[in-house]
Structures are given as C-alpha cells and as structure tokens.
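Q&A log
Question type: sequence-to-structure
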Amino acid sequence: MGTLPRVPLVTELLARRVRADGSSPLVTYYDTDSGARTELSATTLENWVAKTTNLLADELLVSPGDAVELVVAEHDPGHWMTLVWALACWRSGAVVTLGRPDEAVVVVCGPAYEGVEHGTAELVSCSLHPLGLGLGTVTPGVVDYALEVRAQPDRAGSAALGPQDPAWRDAERELDQAGLLDGPTGPAHRSLVRPGDPWATVRDAVVRPLRDGGSSVVLRGDADEERVRQVVTAERVDA
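Response status: OK
Response body:
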C-alpha cells in the first residue's frame, strides 16, 4: 500500500491561495457600529500574517508549542486582526488559547488593555483600527501591535510542524493542526459570517474559505434584516 499524501496545514493553504488567486477578496470585514469596511485579499492577509509571525518569533520570542492567549478573539472574534493573529500563531507553531492566560507567554487583546490579566506574559494591544493604525500612546510595557508589526519583514518561514501539533485550546475543545480543518467540505462559497463563538467565527471566516476555496464577508455589530440584505447583495454573498 502506498503512503497517503499529507493534508496541507492551514497556513500552507494560505500560501497556495496567494499563488493561485492572490488578488481576489478573501476576507471582507464590516463593522456596522463604525461603518468601517476592510477588504483583505489573500496577498494582503499573507503580508500581515508574515509580519505578525516575525513579531512573534523575533521580538516576542515565541517558540513552537508556546501558548498565545487571544483575548481579542473573545471580544472581537471576527475582526480581521484576530484572524491574522490566529494564522500567525499557527504558522509559528504557537498554540492559540482562550481563558488560559496563566499558560501564555504572550497575551493579545484589543485597545482596552487596562485590567487584562497577563501575569508575566508580554501584553500586546491591537487598535482594531480599520486601516491597521496604531494606538498612539500606550502604557510602558504594553506592545502596540500595529506600530511594532509594520517594522517586521514581509516574508516569514514556517515552523517545522506536523498535523498532530497543538493549535487551539479553549474550554470546549483542543485542536491540533489537522483538527483545524476537520468538518464536511463544500463548494467554494462567498459566505456571510456573523461573529459569535470565537472558534466557530475564526473557522468560518478564514479556515473554511482557505480549505474549500471560497471567501467570507464578516458582518460585526447590530444590523437589521434590511442592512444584512444590503450587504449580501453588495458583496454577492451566496451562502
């Protein structure tokens, strides 16, 4: 019997998408509260992921197997910065954790960083600005993600990972790199995602589009049926 081909990891699928169709929208993010719309092609997303991977490895000294607590995924699971952080963790071999800051070497939160539990871990704050701008002034010891990430190289290697390497831990699940891609496959849809459960949101917003060849439109905030219909029509959502 021959050896079965290895299933590619999530970040390998991102690299494939860049080569095959790098310029088309991969994630389109709406915030109805602020009116912001941010569109990321596979190439743009890859650039942010590469820079964030370098920030993790070279500046924050994160090694494969280390835990990175994504507080930002609990509060803003569908924000494009959250998706970038998840992919960068998986490329660097770090494990995304939720609700386990005591295990983490880095804690990543949104702009409201005061009072975020981080112990001895590095605290990184994301502005969540639609254009990726920095926070401006931060408390000493807090890393301004948008400011620091821009200085990082545009290319990054990947840690030597296998399908059984851990990738995500929260109160309900523990997923390895292969487990990130579990679930029934489907055709390449442009899907509407309403943020909710952190893992389900990250999965539907970026993992499944990479796996199945589609794209996502993430709609955050309050939106009545008419507003949802407008977005669905404008973005040509078909699922």
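Response note: The chain is about 35% helix and 20% strand.
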